Amino acid sequence: MVAFSGVRDRLEGEEAARAYGFLNGALNIVPALAPMLGGFLAGAFGWRAPFWFLASYVLVIGLMILRFLPETRPAGTLAVKALPLVQYARILREPRFLAFTFANAGAMGMVLTYVSLAPQVLMTEGKLSALQFSIAFGANGFWIMLGSVLVNKIIRKLGRSICLAFGSLAMACGAVTMLAGMAIFPAEMQTSWALYMFPVAISVAGLAFTVGPATSFALEPYKQQAGVASALAGFIQMAGGSSAGLLAMALPVNEKLALSAMMIMGAVLAALAWKCSRNMHGTLTALKTK
Question: How far is CA 147 from the centre of its chain?
Fold first, then answer.
């Protein structure tokens, strides 16, 4: 949340969208790369190695923050002395904020559903080894980061609204590809890793197109409440996404149908955000605290 509020303090518009895209790209590759890195460390140095690595990482990052991270809050920022419940309530009543944060939650829910179902689909049914599974996960994680880099270049040429439209289209195409694979290919091919990972690769490209622009649109009005708005947006993205993913996995359908449902939901929410982005008028600079 510190990073997101810092971006809001320092950047505006498309510059902010590109920064949010990088941040969300890094955030979303963690579930993909962490199992691979943890597996390699545990296999090479024992089960304690991942914990020593995390402790060392936290120490290094903490020192870097103390040394290099400046205060980004503008000089005229309104001070908040208590838990800003009134500001949270006011922000939650803004349709614009909800439209864009729900788009992020839908994309996050799709990724979390994919991550949760992947071991069953790829290892139990697809018979991939632990190493093969880690490679597939890692490759998809790097694909998300590459997509975020490409989106940052596209934003400069086409703008944020078009990127939201592309994100919706990509997630819809991922769902169609997943369902088509289930309908076209014979039963003996349904356990192939490709019939799961290729549609996922298409959909996570949609996530890369969605999260940066949607986050910048959601936080743009709240210059004086960057931290409050960032915290609320992050909560909705993670809690909403994980809750939707749990509901999808609880459906009495197979794994691919559950993931397809999440892809469709993400596409619909991104499309609503795109429609909202085309009707932007004006920018709020502050919310009353009482």
Answer: 12
CA atoms of 101 and 78, how far apart (whole Å): 24
* Number of structural domains in the chain: 2
Distance between CA atoms of residues 114 and 279, nearest Å: 33
Helices (DSSP H) in 129-190: which residue ranges?
A: 130-158, 160-184
Structure tokens at 26: 């890094």
Encoded tokens for 172:
């819809």
* In contact, 255 and 245? CB cutoff 8 Å: no
The answer to whether residues 189 and 108 belong to one domain is yes
**CA–CA separation, 199 and 192 (whole Å):** 12
Coil vs helix vs strand at 25: helix
Residue type present at position 100: F
Q: Which of the 8 DSSP states describes residue 52?
A: H
Nearest to 193 by CA among 123, 109, 280: 123
Q: Is 253 helix (H, G, I), strand (E, B) or coil?
A: coil
Q: Quote the pTM value.
A: 0.80
Q: How confident is the model at residue 290 (pLDDT cuts 50, 70, 90)?
A: very low
Region for 74 from its dihedrals, namely left if φ exceeds 0, alpha if ψ lies in -120 to 50, beta otherwise? beta
The neighbour count for residue 102, using CB atoms within 10 Å, is: 24
Residues 213-239, mean pLDDT to the nearest whole number = 83
| CA nearest to 240, candidates 103, 88, 105 | 105
Say yes or no: 109 and 8 in one domain.
no
